[in-house]
């Protein structure tokens, strides 16, 4: 896979639609971010955590944000959840999502991989943080890029 394959073949409209659908059942927030930069010596999880904070995801009311972070140039990604959802699901859940992503990304099913991960995260969020009547979308649903 060339880095550009992921960058240009990811269908942002389908990803955003998947985020919107997943968030219909939860007060949680899901974001997707694609970095065009190389990691250099950085750890992908540390970089994702930094982006998580810079996107304001740690400021959600219930601390239930989920970030899917991709660095195509290094063929790396991270899936991280804020404190509220992590306490409910644990590390094994994030690894299961990552395993599904790895498998589909290896087959170059880029959009499908991301949509499936969003759907799985949305199901967990809906189970532990169901949508309330006064819920509002706290974060943009667009695919973030740098």
Report on the structure:
The protein is an alpha/beta fold and 146 residues long. The protein has a single domain, classed as Diaminopimelate Epimerase, Chain A, domain 1, CATH 3.10.310.50. The chain is built from 5 helices and 4 strands. The protein has a 4-stranded mixed beta sheet, with helices on both faces. The mean pLDDT is 92.
Order of secondary-structure elements: HHEHEEHHE
The first-to-last residue Cα distance is: 20 Å
The CATH topology annotation reads as Diaminopimelate Epimerase, Chain A, domain 1
Strand order of the largest sheet: 3-2-1-4
Helix content: 40-55%
Please write the CATH class name. Answer: Alpha Beta
Second CATH tier, the architecture? Roll
The total count of helices amounts to 5
Tell me the count of domains. Answer: 1
Strand-residue proportion: 5-15%
User: What is the total tally of β strands?
Assistant: 4
Judging from the principal axes of the Cα atoms, what is the shape? globular
Low-pLDDT windows of residues? none
Q: Helices and strands: which structural class? A: alpha/beta
Quaternary structure type: single chain
- Describe the sheet with the most strands: 4 strands, mixed
